[in-house]
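Continuing the batch. This is chain 6 of the set; chains 1 through 5 are on the previous pages. Same settings as before, nothing changed between runs. Recording input and output for traceability.
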Amino acid sequence: MTNVSYHISNLLEKMTSTDKDFRFMATNDLMMELQKDSIKLDEDSEKKVVKMLLKLLEDKNGEVQNLAVKCLGPLVSKVKEYQVETIVDSLCTNMLSDKEQLRDISSIGLKTVISELPPASTGSTMTANVCKKITAQLTGAIGKQEDVSVQLEALDILSDMLSRLGGMLYTFHSSILNCLLPQLTSPRLAVRKRAIIALGYLVLTCNGNIFSELMEHLLAELKRNESTSTTRTYIQCIAGISRQAGHRTGEYLEKIIPLVVRYCNVEDDELREYCFQAFESFVRRCPKEIGPHIPSVMGLCLKYITYDPNYNYDNEEEEEEEEMMETENGEDEEQESDDEYSDDDDISWKVRRSAAKCLEAIVGTRHDLLQDFYKTLSPVLIGRFKEREENVKADIFCAYISLLKQTQPIQSWLHASDAGGKEEIPLTMLQNQVPNIVKALHKQLKEKSIKSRQGCFSLLTELANVLPGCLADHISALMPGIIFSLADKSSSSNMRIDTLSFLHVLLCNHQPEVFHPHIKALLPPVVTCIGDPFYKITSEALLVTQQLVKVIRPLDKSCAFDAKPYVKDLFSGTLKRLKAADIDQEVKERAISCMGQIVCNLGDHLSGDLPPTLKIFLERLKNEITRLTTVKALTLIASSPLKIDLRPILGEGFPILASFLRKNQRALKLSTLTALDILIKNYSDSLKPAMVESVLTELPALISENDLHVSQVAIVFLTTLAKVYPSSLSKISGSVLSELFQLVHSPLLQGGALNAIIDFFQALVITKTANMGYAELMKQLTSPMYSSPGGASVTLHKQAYYSVAKCVAALSSACPKEATRVASQFIQDVKNPKSSTAVKMLAFLSLAEMGRTMNLSAQKELKTVILEAFASPSEEVKSAASYALGNISAGNLKEYLPFMLKEIGSQPKRQYLLLHSLKEVISSSPADGLKPYVEDIWALLFNHCECTEEGTRNVVAECLGKLALVNPSQLLPRLKKQLSSGSPHARSTVVTAIKFTISDQPQPIDLLLKGCIGDFLKTLQDPDLNVRRVALAMFNSAAHNKPSLIRDMLNTVLPHLYNETKIRRELIREVEMGPFKHTVDDGLDVRKAAFECMYSLLESCLDRLDIYEYLNHVEDGLKDHYDIRMLTFIMLARLSTLCPNAVLQRLERLIEPLRATCSTKVKAGSVKQEFEKQDELKRSAMRAVAALLTIPEVEKSPVMAEFSSQIRANPEMASLYESIQKDSASLPTTESMDMN
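Output for chain 6:
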């Protein structure tokens, strides 16, 4: 301790030296000391250091002053509060001094101190006290100061403080407001501007009364309209406030908008510019409240975007027609007008620019008005592409690009199957305007201005992406511009890159034929770009070249174009890049891909150049950095229809590929397996057995349940081997097969991997390889079932039985001779009373899979065996038997269906199982086969739709729904008729049946459903709770799988949906369980279903929701039961990415419940489940908080800032937040998937 104070007193002494260098070094050393965390100052040292630094702020030497200011930052956190107050007092006094340099240094000092003050959440009172001191001084200075530069500095510091610590100054808010408002009429514009900025920060944290006082003042002043200059300022101020606190401005818009509209028509360009800036901020920040005014605002924008009073555009039109014939008298006129008016006074371009930006905001926020935009807005914007002012033109382009982005069809699975006619209309309207767009742009592609050329290219790129193929008729108009920008010496590198990337999009989105006439002119500049020294240009040029190769010789269709003259240039340009070792990684990869494409499409023209090129590929294959790209290129070459001769590299390449299969890089394994698969298919005659063996030894390790996709690709490769190179199969070591059988018995096997195994077994059994015949494979497949001890202990998972059964059926269909014997064997197994449950299950499931494709009518005992099994004591056997009956019937409707229907009618005890069988029949039979039986089945199902058992009702509903798909026009009206049925059970069955008619694939029933789904949705108002619950489930299914059914009904449906999210007191009852009372909420399931529907609507119908109304109900959900809170946390996280602005407006109300959840404590004596439940809840809430923190500008909200510092200060919350950050970092970005 003593040596610190000794060291410091030493430094202080040097600071008084007359030599400025000593003072400088001493101050520098002090700075170093203060930055150490360990330093502690005693009271005496504190006093001396503070006094010294304040003295040095007035030092004659500027550098010493600067350093002294820098010392203040670290000093603030090291000294006691009253010392900080001393510093602040002194700085504030100096700020009012007459010496300019001292004033500047003091204001920098104050800013430094403010930025170092600890935030409110740390609980220190120092910040609040210091701020109050500064504020009192500053407001005084701003209010009475005659010197403008002091006012400016003071305003600047006040803004700084309000933005960082506004919440702590709440006692001063009204005095700050009173001090700032008069500054809006200051004679100096700079003062007004800074006052506006300060007010913007003030409205972030002030309370409602102060905000309304401010708005009332601004509105009153706007109405008074004393002078244009102050009106401008007030409009700027309102725009600034709306930008910072849009959610508060909303309620005043009704009064503000008419005034701003009025001032738009005043002849003052600057005022107009500010009016449009205000409109833009309203559109972006108060989207709901501006809604009704959009037409009038848009009308004004369209009027003023063409506002250019001092320039005559008509001349240009005539010039085009008269081919630049200049008349003498025209020139004279020009001369005269020059005297009265100079171009520098013309600021009309600012009006046009702000109108264009406002239009861009409207287009970006109102997807629902797309058709209107194409009717009214698009032609006007296209007409303005000729704008003479470069900056304005850039904004007009941006607005049009924004319009194109809104038109882009949504590329998600949801809409792919579900694109109604709605999406098409704007696209058709756009298609009709393409010629005008090209006409307006193609001349500009040769202009000198690089900025406007880049604008043209980005607009055309977007256009080609939104409407692939739309520029086909205009290629000849665009080509000269493209070639000009590539070859022009004055083009910047970005200009070339933009041109190349447009060319790439153009080549990808259009048919090859349209480019053939232009190849001769286009190819040389592109090849020159491959040789460009700047790697980004090279890289883009290689992408374009790869696409060009596909264009000049498309392999998927015959083409008359002769590619031969161009091969040499393409090849040598790319080869140079392929050989170079010291180039950028991206260029290396693209050179390999490009050369791969050249060999694939033009390999027959390369003759002697081919073997050396392939050798380079071999080199690249050995290099770790380029191997993946090379494997993909080789796959391309091997699959080429030109049958490229790969023998020169196969001998050495095959073992390298085999070695890749054991590398720990998943993408490499997958690509290598695909490459090997193609090589085996197309080059089996050039392969030696040793090569194939080297691959086979690597395969067992790839087949496992840990990575089903890699397993699937490996098994597909094996299947290819079995078909193309059967002789190699004898070498398949037992280990590959044992891995396969292990996979078949795995509970995770399903889908693609299972199908791959089935294909492989079928291919394998046909090759008749020794030890791999039908009997051996069957034995290996079924041995676990037979070996399980006689008891009922089933060791394998249920899924494994289904997998084995499918493999058995596949083997049997490949060897029909064996099938009958095996089927009889299975029936014997079932009859044998000693058989275990496992054996019986396997037998029934295998019979089911075989019966689906083969006719089992030869097996006379089958029916009785199945019906007997329905009485088995084991549930598993019962359900397997029911599955078997269903599938066997589906394979042989004539014999089995009437039998099944008779049984359902006469056997009430076995109904549930028989109905399950019927469900299998309806699901897996073709519609034509079922038609004759529809009436009988329907009548039978309707007898059971009022059954009291909910399980039975659900199966009946599924059967009804799937049956309705067979003959929708007759059966749907019958379902509708049942809605009026008196029994709630019958109504719930019918509504659930509708749920099963909705699938995510297009179906003939869709049109009919769309017409009558409204009637089924009326059950959302049903008096019966259960009917409402199933109605919500049906609505959710529609919202999730086929949104087009319900999109247009949301206005009527949403109020009833929202109604179901409310907690109903009358449904909560108390149940006595011994000494304890337990509350049961019967309405919980319905509420849960309602919130699930709301979540589905977010994904599919976001543009049809009033998001503010929606958020009201999310807010209620955040305070509801555990299950519902979990759901609303997920909804909140999703909303943060989908509509951040709306969430920002509601932040205060959303944060409270999150904060409550994150800081709950579980009672000490609670059970373990209660702790786990709370942990899961906190985790989910914290995920929502993390999502909220990703919203841009969220940190401006005082509530959020306070909460996030509370999280940092609380160790438990902080560690939870960090772990969530880690989780989200390790996940792939789902956002990009969802939102593309």
